[in-house]
Each structure stands twice: as C-alpha cells, then as structure tokens.
Amino acid sequence: MSTQAQLRLPAQSPSRRDFLFLATGAFGAVGAGAAVWPLLASMKPSAEVKAAGGPITVDLSHLQPGQQISVFWQGKPVFILHRTGQALAELRDPKLLARLGDPDSAMVQQPDYARNWCRSTKPEFMVLIAICTHLGCIPAIRPDPGDSSIDASWPGGYFCPCHGSKYDLAGRVFRGVPAPYNLPVPPHHYTGDTMLVVGENPAGENFSLSSIEQL
Prior knowledge:
Helices cover about 10% and strands about 20% of the residues. The strands form 3 sheets. A 4-stranded antiparallel β-sheet has the order 1-3-4-5, with no helix packed on it. The protein has a 3-stranded antiparallel β-sheet with strand order 2-10-9, with no helix packed on it. It has about 220 residues and is mainly beta. It is built from 4 helices and 10 strands. A hairpin with a 6-residue loop joins strand 7 and strand 8 (about 165). It has helices spanning about 15, 45-50, 85-90, 95; strands spanning about 20-25, 55-60, 70-75, 75-80, 125-130, 140, 155-160, 165, 190, 195-200. The chain has a domain at about 55-205: 3-layer Sandwich (Rieske Iron-sulfur Protein).
C-alpha cells in the first residue's frame, strides 16, 4: 500500500525557499513495490533570480530513499528522487534495458558526466527536468512494479497521463510510446554529500541545455 507524508525540509532563506514547490511521500517498503505520489504546491521564484536564471542549491539531507521533491529552475520543474537500492538494481536489469528506446543515453539529453547507467553523478539521487519530450506535459512518478493501470510488466518509473509516454527511474524512455527522447538531465553538481546545486556544472564542464535534442 502506498504511503504519503509531507517531506519536511529545513528552514531556508527566502531566495531558496521560493524555489521549493513539491514534497512527496516515501515509498512503502512492502514486498517488491514502493509508491510515492507528487503533491503539487507551487511557489513563485523571486523576479531577480528568475530573470538571471542562476543555479539553485537544495539540501537533500532529509530526503529519504523513495522520496521525491521538485524545484523550479529557470522556470522549469526539476524532479529530485532519492532512489532505493531496489530501484538502482532495476536500472541494470537486461529485461528493462531491452524495453528502452535509448538505454545507453546515446542521444544528447544529459551532460557527459551523467551519461552512465544511472544518468546522474550520484547513483542514489536522480535529477531530471520534468517535461515530457513528446508535447511538454509533466509526467507523474509511478514507482510500483506491476502497476496494472499501466501494464502488468511495469517496472516502476514515470508515466505521462496526457498521451501515455513512459520512462524508467533514470528518465529513459520506453519503446513504442509517443515521446522520442529520454527526459533531460540539467547541469548539476554537489558541494557536499547532500548539497545539490542545480543549474551549474562541475568544475571543468560546460554542458548547456541548448545542446540537447529536445526539451
């Protein structure tokens, strides 16, 4: 059974707090499945930061395995998911890889430093721009394996209710759906174990969203 509990984040300065607009519940650690459903409560970024499109810093120290939050960066929703060990193992399952349109992230939908099996710089944390590459809808996380409302062989991932596009928990698109590309991974790096900076590359890297195939 899914559980929902609002994620409590530490107090932040107004400029950072204004970016936080979503907190979701933890996965239920029952059998092979887990579930979390987004609870949307948008907050408007400050005009100065929005105009500048600068990076934002997010403290993930309170984000437990199976929990997801979202932030706004440059006016775009960004999902940040703390993946469970089970979810990480699933990402390498040959049965899953055979169902994906771009399992090796060959298309430029992520920085080179996130072109790996987990599409992130820290395997446990997924950072994705939450815009479907079909027509720009926002997909919903549907982490329960075998969710019959999607299909019996569903391994858990993201589902776009608008036109049925599906992605795994690394944002990799499934074959045979309207979306042509994986979900984009934004520039990001960490200044500590759990201090994430979205919108800024690690030192020596120069990835830009302008280089991706489709947003």
